[in-house]
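Input:
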Amino acid sequence: MTGTIQNRESFLNNIARQLGRDRLKEPLQKPEWKYNPQDKVLADATEDDLVEVLKSHCEKINTTFISTTKADLTVALNEAVKNYGGGPVVTWKDERFTQWGLKDLFNNEWSKQGLEYHEWDYTSGDDNIRHAEQANVGITISEVTLAESATVVLFSSKDRGRTVSFLPKTYIALVPKSSIVPRMTQAAKKMRAMHQDGQKIPACVNFISGPSNSADIELQLVVGVHGPFKATYILIEDL
Amino acid sequence: MPMKIGNENFSERVGKGINNSFMRGAVAGAQDSIGARRLHAVEELGNWEEWRSHGEEIRQHVLEHLDYYLEQLSDNIANRGGNVYFASTPEEANDYIRGVIKKKSAKKVVKSKSMVTEEINLNSSLEGIGCEVIETDLGEYILQIDDHDPPSHIVAPALHKNKEQVRDVFTEKLGYKKSSDPTELAWHAREMLRQDYLTADVGITGCNFAVAETGSFALVTNEGNADLVTSLPKTQITVMGMERIVPSFAELEVLVSMLTRSAVGQKLPSYVTVLTGPREAQDVDGPEEFHLVIVDNGRSKILGTEFQSVLQCIRCAACVNACPVYRHVGGHSYGSIYSGPIGAVLSPLLGGYDDYKELPYASTLCGACTEVCPVKIPLHELLHKHRQVIVEKEGRAPVSEKLLMKAFGLGAASPTLYKWGSKLAPSAMNPFTTDDKISKGPGPLKAWTDVRDFPAPNKERFRDWYKNREKGESKS
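Output:
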């Protein structure tokens, strides 16, 4: 459904008048920028260099960094959840969890351990939000991972609720090594390419760098304000 | 609150500021620590000047083509099912937003930090129709529950309060029983606000940058409050100053990086959220209905003038953190929600010289602001331009400057008078002088000497010293 636009013509005509010209009607080509400093950041870094940058920046943003392989992912994730005090756990509904061999952990192992688990399911509506709000751990997957700022990038959808990464007390991101890029520049390029290919940009794209924090009282850092208190990234080396 | 804060005049505000020793210590400490972090964050890039030039070329291009990009933005938002309202005045913006609120029969609104909503006084407009409005940024929340104490810094609004004052406010207003430890205080706010996010009917946000090509916009926070404001309520209203726009994601990421490095020395904050339209049909979270309100409120009058470059601003407050005048007088002295050098340039343009004619004089024109600005706004030159306009076109320099200039003009115009005056100065100042310093100065010197000593005039004038030196008589 198309939305409404109100008061536009007089508003924009006034801007053009102030700028001393008529309204611009022809499609405008973006200029060739004279400067492009962003392309130079970590331009020569190898994939392993980028992992090191990511890892070292995690320390600066109070984020636990774990490196594992696809074969050991189940053990590593189970361990990370236990370190955060166990369930309830909430995750997206995502095929990749199955491909990475995590379904047994989610559906059998955790119930044996008495740990409560909820998989996001859009057919049950707001019930998902209640689960996320009660959860101790939220788990999601990074689409693009920015080495420079230790940032995971999440694309929302009906199966990938936004609040899974925000409402639970702690947060775990799964990071395929192949998703690592130097910085936000490459993520922006990817998103722009999606748009130019005619794909819809997800309604919400989250760039998350560690747990939530604030320095609003006497500039003293408090970790854990409106979002999670703690964050862990699990790097999967062979994905 | 509106852009203008309080009814005291400039010197009353400054008087309060310089006598508030906690605030002055806090501001100095904040400037030093944020300043050092900013410097580290920009220097590690190794080519910050190139970044600044890129920031500048992006912002200048956008302003020159603003009508085009706003048209593209609004088309793309409507295509994604969002509604766009162009508001020339605060009244138009508030009327539209009240209309949405009424249509939804909304009783509770959660808000993430937004300067433009302060500028249009949105909160009181909504409270006027019986709607509860809750600020969720920790700093804004503290100020709101403290009977709407005004913000004193663009990025850290509660900078002027110490943790004991925050505890006292929490104790009085929220029945808080714990300590003044910032972590305990913040976690208490978390608990209080969690329920509000879950029960609010409408979420209202500002906009760090809109993206014309895709109809998206970005929100930048460390707390994660903007994410809950935009995920949980069924209706979302975003308010943006009309100049806060970039052509595409390519420019968005550059400016977001520059914003967070300049504001707090972070490579990126904990949360950068890029939203496009309302939620998709089967999504569970995110708003069902989305409204973007694009506000002019005096900005278009700046376009095409010698002040146009001020609209390049990305609200990082690096200039505030670098300003020696802000350091001493604090944010409230500016009498505007926009403080520091950017406030001294912008407030008179948006609010008029009647209320803000002193602000361009609250500067030493040292240029520290211009040097740190990530998008190269020539702030100190714009302050100087304001002074020219005030004196030449408006004919209303502040009284003290007029008197000084008159006296100087009179004295300097006649060599005899000048000689006489400068000879007289040491003895005229004698009653106020101890150890070659003036600590309680008269007239125009008073404001200065309230804060610090002023060097007393030399007993020997330069001309006399020079003459004597020529004669080989001087001991200096």
